[in-house]
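S.,

Sequence below, as promised.
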Amino acid sequence: MSTSTGWKAEPDDQSERLYSLTLALVSTQVGLTKEEIFSSVRGYRLDLEKAGGLGGDLTALNKKFDRDKEKLRELGVQITPGPNSTEGDADYRYQVSTDTFNWPEKTTISAKQLQLLELAASIWDKAALSPEASSAITRLRALTELGEVSLTRAVSPRVNTIEPSFSPIKRALEDRVQISFTYRKPDGSESTRNVEPWQLIHMNGLWMLLGFDLARNEPRNFLLKRIHSKVVRTKVPISLPNPSDITQAKRELNELFAKNVAKLRVKSGTTAAMHFETHNSPDGIVEVHYYDLALLAEEILEFGTSVTVIEPLELRDQIRKTLQAVVDNHA
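The prediction came back faster than expected:
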């Protein structure tokens, strides 16, 4: 929803919406009507506003709700009629089946178990759940044994999702539709790719899309850093990929990463020494594995003269080429 200051509401996210829906249905003892769900759960409320409220055309919203109910059932969360509800009633209410979802009576969580849950919740950077969804941690604390302090936030890792293409690809994966985007190859050339998205993965510090390249008629891996356009969604549905194809794509990535090795000399006491973790190398020489030579060259250039490339020669040439391009463009 736009405002006079140019701010826009965050786009709807299926995983967050399902989480919020589950929390809402767990919290109620009498169940919720569809209208109450649409008005209170953020993912539906945004669409409800676009439809003009409860008096508008709710056809698309009803279909989304039906898909979400089916998805929750696949995940083992059983949605059942509320007390005295009969299908077709105007006051039909939904709730989560207590015998398949609620924990046993007097269940508690230890402080250490809660720390692990907080660690899992905090690992995502730039992709946090909304306050509605993150309130689950507060609910879990009510079951926690007191006496220990969580220290996980000071040491928790981060999965950075700042790539602009991450969110639209994630939504296309959830909706199972084809996408297209402009992809820049290491040599600088660009081409439009039409892809059936299979999976987003985070490997060795980089986000990648595994998918089926329709023009090349084969599975391909795409670095999100090399997507240089908006990701355009189509309405063309895709079928679920064969698990063996995904396994093979990941295997090829691992083989590529293991095969590509660069040897660097890094000055001690510099930021580069911390970045490339030279603490186990007295002479400052380290071996670095990589997926993309050009991206590694860009990474090294950030540290200036603190890093010298020993091998491969192709990496040296790539750095020289990049520096020459800067000179040519700004001379």
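Residues 1-9, 125-133, 145-159 have pLDDT under 50 and may be disordered.

Coffee later?
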